[in-house]
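ok trying again, last paste got cut off:
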Amino acid sequence: MYDLPSEDPEEPDFDTIPPLPPRETLPTMYDLPSEDPEEPGLPDEFHNLQPELLSRTFSLDGYSPQDIFIGTDLNLYYDVRHSQWYKRPDWFAVLGVPRLYEERDFRRSYVTWQEGVNPFVIVELLSPGTANEDLGETQGREEEQMGGRGDAETRGRGDVGTRGMGDRQMSDGETLRIPSTSSPPRKWEVYEQILRVPYYVVFSRYDDRLWFFQLVGGRYQEQPVASEAPLIWIEELQVGLGLWQGEYDGISRLWLRWCDGDGNWIPTDTEVERQQKEVERQQKEEAIARASQAESQLETVALNLLNSGMDVDRVAQLTQMSVERVRQLARVR
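nice, full thing came through this time. structure:
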């Protein structure tokens, strides 16, 4: 055996070959469906307009628009072990990723194992059929307030929020909830336990109510909602959310909208353009008014000179007015 090679020199040494990157070995957005044809469409027009308004008013200092990806009603793939599992948030924002996939293509979906960055904030629009999914562990308290039966623990995380979940003890002693292979977890567990999205907001258009959750110690804790804008403040982003009474796309109602720390609403691109046009109009009117005033003052000077006995040509020379205009003033004085 001492004279025979211990390995085939033409065979690769798999222990020394680095693993291929996920983009080469795992499904990408091109391989995964962008939508489920069996799912119904958006429940109403509000689910189209409200995310659009959120997107058009989401502006952050320190981030170029090209370094923020905003998804609305887009498949969000979250588990590489179950590559077909996804959630479809009404609105979410990911920071520090190119707006375009690989900086060249529109995203058909958002695949976390390809992107390497999870959403930072998610907004869900409450619907009667998705309340359990949207509110997760808080739904038990809501049902209790509405006279539902059963104890809160059963209606909360113990029942509503644990389908498809299992426990895994981590090395640091933390218990991580992971999806089982039988069925996908609900969105609360995906956002909280798998993606660990720092901020989660739920808005009900039916009673204009807001729920605001922040990830604290690995769990969502409901945060207070202020009584005036900003109702919700995200310190890390220096941006807030409030309820704006106004008209958007021809519909007047309360809308969820981004604002600054003083409650000033962040304008849409259309509003910025309208404001610029209004400023230009006002500046033009002011310029015309100033010119008219200056002309009136000059005519007064010319009349005074004519009344003093000065001839027309000399007045025109001193005032830089045309001889014809000075003659007109001389005739009507």
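cool. The chain is about 30% helix and 20% strand. Confidence is low (pLDDT under 50) at residues 139-165, 168-172.
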